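Researcher: Good morning. I'm working through a list of sequences from a screen, and I'd like to move beyond sequence-only analysis. For each chain I'm collecting a predicted structure so we can compare shapes side by side. This is the next one on the list. No need for commentary yet; just the structure.
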Amino acid sequence: MRAGVLLAAALAAPALALSPRPALRPTSVLSLAAAADAPAAAAAPDGPAFASDGPAFAPSAEDLLQPTDIQLDWYRVVFFALNPAAFLPLPLLACLLRRRVLGPAFACDLAALRLGALWSAPMLALSLLPLERLPGLAAIAEVSRAARVITLWALGCRWRPLSGVAAAALISASAGVCEELAFRGTLQPALQALLAHAGAPAAAAAAAACAAQALVFGALHSYTNSSVYFIATTVAGLAFGAAFAATGNLAVPVVMHFLQDLISFAVCHWDVAKRGSEADQRALLWDESPIARGLRLMVGGVREVADEEPPAPGAAALGA
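Model: Good morning. Structure tokens for this chain:
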């Protein structure tokens, strides 16, 4: 996957409290702390006990959770698809206040589809360029890696073109509809109206509102240790907001968002499941980015316990 891919919102930060049915081996959800308390040696009922001078063997997290555990599972797909719905209270509240969240020129027709495809074309073209190879842009590779991490958990480690694309379409449609309703359909017009009421010129209010909602959108998608994913999704939010401001039709950024996510998922699924080795998948599974750690905890059920400090000399004797 090229590093410029902007995978917008397969998971949204406020929606991470949902708990799906894990489709993993039972051992992968065991507490590692409990495993560490296992005795060093076990005695058979009628046989001698074998003592050990070393510490008890405790399986590591990597032993409990393998890439082959992550298969395409529709319970998990639905979990990913429902996460963006955490933003829906915002547009629902706007509707109760009689706000036009769909835009003044809303129309879901072929013209909107064409406009959405045209507006998304520059972003898709940039996403396929190896931008990380340019001087000073090596950090962009984190964007692609985070996208592959999400895709591994969402679509599994095995290449399944038909079911994988169907699952990606469901997740992408949910993200496109829910997030565009919240950020572009509700937040952007509200900020624009607030700035206009404060006396800002119309053009300045529109530009500032577009920039502000994009910053919020990017902040809720800080999936990497550095700020590179925040920057990438902020740029995507600017593009979606500009399309909405220019057309007045929320269907246009919805189409843009859907196409961006769907193509990103499809390319990442090929890259992870078809071209990637098991070692590559393992590296993604145990990546140290915030999104990888969150997915291991909430989808994989693996609680990562920090290493404890070794006991002080003589502590064992004192406790005996």
